[in-house]
Amino acid sequence: MPGLPETVPTEAYLALSAVLFGIGAIGVVLRKSALTMFMSIELMLNAVNLTLVAFARQFGRLDGQVIVFFVMAVAAAEVAVGLAIIVDIFRSRRSVDIDDVSWLRG
Amino acid sequence: MEFLIFSVFAVVSVAAALLMVLQRNAMYSALFLVLIFFCLAVFYILLGAYFLAVVQVAVYAGAIMVLMLFVIMLLNVAYPEPVDRALGLLRPIGWASALVLASLVAWIAAGSPGASVARTASGAGLALGTVGVAEAGHVQEVAVTLFSKYLLPFEMTSILLLAAILGASVLARKRPDHA
Amino acid sequence: MLDQLWLVPVLPLAGAVLNAFLGRRFGRDAVVAFGVGSVALSFMVAVGTVNDLLAMGQMMHGVETHLFPWLAWGDGAARVTVAEVGMLLDPLSATMILVVTGIGTLIHVYSAGYMEHDDGFARYFAYLNLFTFAMLVLVLANNLVLLFVGWELVGFCSWALIGFWFDRDSAANAGRKAFITNRIGDLGVLVALFLVWANWGTFAFHTAPGSMTPGFLDDPAKVLATPLLAMAIPLLLLVGVTGKSAQIPLFVWLPDAMEGPTPVSALIHAATMVTGGVYLVARVHPVYDQSPEALLALAAIGALTAFVAATIATAQNDIKKVLAYSTVSQLGFMVLGLGAGAYSAAIFHVMTHAFFKALLFLGAGAVIHGLANQQDLRRMGGLLRYMPVTGWTFIVGWLAIIGVPGFAGFFSKDLILAKAFGRGLVDPTYLVLYGVALVTVGLTAFYMSRLVFLAFFGEYRGSHDEGEVHPHEAPFSMLFPLSVLAVGSVVAGWVGVPAFLIGAGGEGTAIERFLAPATLATGVWEGTLNHSTELLLAGLSVAVTLVGVGAAGVIFLGEGASPLLGELVRPFRDLFAGRWFLDELYGAVVVRPVGRVSSYLASFDAGVVEGTVTLVGSSVTGLGGILARLQSGYVRGYAVTMLVGAVGVVAAAWALR
Amino acid sequence: MNGVPLISLMLAIPALGVLGVIAGAGRDGAAARTIALLSSAVTFVISLLLWVGYEPAGARFQFEEQVDWLPDFGISYHVGIDGISLLLILLTTIFVPVALAASGSSVDTRLREFASLVLVLQFAILGALVALDLFVFYIFFELMLVPTFLLVGVWGGERRVAAAMRFFLFTMVGSVAMLVGMIALGTSKGTFDYVGLIDALGKPGGSIGAATAMWLFVAFTLAFAIKVPLVPLHSWLPEAYVQAPVSVTVLMSSVMAKVGTYGFLRFSIGLFPGAAQEAASAVALLATLGIVYGALVAAKQRDLKRLVAYSSISHLGFVMLGLVAGTTEAVQGGVIQMVNHGVSTGALFLMAGMLNERARTWAIAHFGGLARVMPVFAALLVLVTFSSAGLPFTNGFTGEFLILTGAFRAPATHVWAFAVVGAVGVILGAVYLLRMFQQVMQGPVNPAFVAGNGGANGPFSIGDLTGREMLILAPLAVLIIWIGVYPKPFLDRSAPAVRAVTASFAGASR
Lengths: 106, 179, 657, 510
What we know:
The complex is a heterotetramer of chains A (106), B (179), C (657) and D (510).
Chain A: H1 10-30, H2 34-59, H3 63-93
Chain B: H1 2-22, H2 26-46, H3 50-75, H4 90-109, H5 116-128, H6 131-136, H7 139-148, H8 151-172
Chain C: H1 7-26, H2 28-56, E1 63-73, E2 80-89, H3 91-114, H4 121-140, H5 144-162, H6 169-200, H7 227-244, H8 253-256, H9 262-271, H10 276-283, H11 285-289, H12 292-313, H13 319-339, H14 343-370, H15 383-386, H16 388-402, H17 408-424, H18 429-456, H19 476-491, H20 499-502, H21 510-519, H22 531-557, H23 563-577, H24 582-630, H25 635-655
Helix pairs in contact in C: 1-2, 1-4, 2-3, 2-4, 3-4, 3-9, 3-14, 3-19, 4-5, 5-6, 5-9, 6-7, 7-10, 7-12, 9-14, 10-14, 12-13, 12-18, 12-23, 13-14, 13-17, 13-18, 14-16, 14-17, 14-19, 14-21, 16-18, 16-19, 17-18, 18-22
């Protein structure tokens, strides 16, 4: 296709990642459901992962990819514990509305 | 060709993300998230990170999302959530901040006047050559790096996962007083 | 023997250490052995070294001994020496160590008898030995800092010994007053030291072998580059002299110092320590030679002090207080001598004064001892009958201090007067000072005669019944030193007999010629007097003395003063008895204002402390209140906050790229 | 000796000691003090080895160890000592066992926690003294805060919590300023290494500009000035010193305050000699103000411990005056005065504590005539008091004289006048110290101390020094005389380091 670059520049990935990150952030703020908030956080993590992989390619090093691997592992752990907490909260409150969980009010 | 694929999946992923966030129904949100994960796997392939692409599908789209869907169904909260209570100023501030953040980062990354750093870096990256990159994503190289330079973090991650398993099972355990 | 010079100060130090650590375990005999023995040995070594010095004939700079580096660091070429520990033996220090160890030995012997029944026997001798050590450091130091060390250490020992009977508040107060008054004077010395270091870059008196920096006394003219400095250093040192040698305005501590045991008054507050100031000026006299103004200040202060103290002495009834003011007055004579540029005359007076004033104080001690701690002259009288040895030796001391020809005081005092007069031929101001001094000679004769007549002549006025006090003679250990000192009070002056009188060759006196290498003024012109003028001046002072003695005799031996005269002198009596009200003045001008500032600051500080507590407390609560409202507990609220923060960080990073 | 990483070993011993105390002491903590003492004794022996092995003529920093830590930020575990840190290390290793031994009956609860916190404090102080990397220094500097806060807050007097909080807040403010300055400096030069920074700043074109240097100097100095403390930042001190148990007060004044003066010399002056030169007059003014102010306020205190606390402020003013004066004599004096202040003020606090253990009061007016009751104690107190008042042939004179003599010819404007005012402070020192001595030790014996029907010479209800107390005070008395009469071994060791500082100082003034 004429006029278009052969490879996708890193900047494009970064921009995309930024947009995804922003949307995820909006989700965290907007949604009341703890579950949807969780998903939004996952989206943000993935956006960051994308930058890491993009930079890994740019600098020709594997460290970025390895870190993404760790992020995934940590995310898995986080999801497991987080969901357990949600289940526990739901048991006592019959709701996953995040605004009901405000025991930390100062 | 590569650019075309990127463009298509970029549009798809952004659209899916928006739909996910704006969706009232948790079940639909989860499904859109799965779609985003797949898009990301495609990007990883484009970037030469084949191993990660596989892991992305397996772990995120497979394990994590299945877990989430399980919970959604288990708790039966897939109904549309009620209209939000007034969050006061927080809601507009949140919107604004998120938009500013996204556009700021995107602008910087995509070659704003301030992106000279990124540009020189990308130039250097191209100079380093795509030679290494082509093989860089193969399982073997990743594995070698992971089990040599990052051995200690790797082991610590496994301990973290173990702790997460224990924590999750303790938290989700049915307690006598709740029964 | 010169190589053993270090033993002179170290022996008393060893005595002090032994008595301090083991004294209480060893018992009194051992304490006396250590205490007296160490000083006596030190005296013998001193005699030996001085003898060697005389034999060497190498007098100009004396002999220096470098013991060890003190305020110094680095080795070899990198060595920086601010001050070392070293000794300088020249005619000046030789005279002083003989006086200090010699008279010190006698007073130690006397103390063994005087303090026999005191609880703090070992402590007393430890301090007394330590004092001897400190005084020897002062006079033997080969640099100004070490001299200052001795200077401060004698002050410390003085504090400890004045407050020796610390159960008495008055004694403790007097000790503190002495130390602090001295410290005020020391401030001057300290600043003078700074100036010396800044100007010469060394504290050494004389150039050390192999040293690039000449000793500052070898290069006194360097100071002239800054005329202000040439005057500042001697004037600042003068402040120290007024403290240590009890001159106006800082002499107020010395009379109070009589709270200490009498032998202490004799050794420290009469014979040795208080002459430290005189010694200091004589030692650094090349610096004074550069500044006629400083010399004049010295002379004026000396003459004024001599006069004021003598007037106060006329109105005191405590035998030790009279002697104390007499000491101040005599020190005034010495300072006047210094101010006239007659350093050797001043040192000569230091020496003779040490003999007769020690004698007088020890005699007073024997009197107090014999009267069971009675110090009031009005309760004495006729004591010559009860304690003849004490009485007759005391009379020798009296004759010496008032300057009866042939006795020690006559020669030294007269030398000073003659020098002041001689200087007056050049600078008429000195003639005024000479006049003041001459009047003081008369006053001296008056108050000393008053003391002797009241104490030793007439009838005993103390009550025989009350407290079963019978005047009795002192034990031998006290009488022996009295006798030796009495002899000294006569013969010590004979080294100062003018050469022309006894037909010896040379100019001036033997003591002047001996001291000249160390103390001869450079660049100060003193008028030369012909022999007949000298004799005339001597006759004049003898005449004045006779008037003073006569007046005292009429008033205190005869029928007493006429009522009219009594009325006439009453205001003066009140002024003198009130010590010119200087203590009150200092209280109002210095002590109480400092106290008030101090109180104010203390309450201010407490306020600041409390204030910050309140401030910190309220601001923490206030801030906490604001922050607490942000802590809504809503997770999404926290999320927004984080988001805003993230935007801030990114924006900042971008803006600051 | 070369192969052994002595410094790391010295740091490891207190750390191991903490574990030993926690593991070895039973629930009642009976063995805690013994184990801690043992640990601190070993640390002392190692510090002696450093003393023996240190070559005054050798390299600038000796016993160096360097291991990469966060190489991307130019941060490494870099430790080493010069003569200045050597002296302060010895001071620390002497005072920790002394403080432990002196904690005696004033600390009788939670001994296990107490002993381990003291060792943590020792670890932090020693670490701060040997650190040659700004980041490492900062970590140790902050680490000092935690055990001190707890030691004051848990074992202190009635108002201990407020005192501890105030101490904590004040110190934090300063630390934050230093942290900002440190990061700014470290990132601009790409390294946090002390030696590397000095090289980078000294290179032609490596200068950061006078204004920036001044800001950084102020940021660093603020942290140290609060720690010292320099008037008017001292208002945390009296309460903290008074509320803390005696042994903790001793550690705070004798050792911890020295990290403040040390940091000022090493970092504020060492890194920014030009700015230090420019600010010399201002710092000297504050230091002199502290000398006089502390002395005047001390003169009116009715509480023994508070009096010593204010005297400590006054004495530290001398140290700061010496350090900032920048002449070799003054800085040498400042360094030796750090040791002196530790020894003399520490001894004063210890002796005040011993009186308190006997009489159960701090009020000066309640004492009186104790020299009759406890003669040995009185003799030692004479020595310590006069050392504090700067009597020649005691350590106080050595330090104060060098400081004032050196400051008098300091190049910065008006510093000579501050030296003169400082000399006035010497007089004021004598005033309040002698007054204190007189009211406590002299005069008639307070009847409260005469037991039953005893006569004037006892028996008294309180006794003279015990053997343990003499053992505690003896090394301090020896140091007082030693530094007073023959300070050369100490001055020799600090001289090369001081010369390096003063050379940069003088170079900056040109």
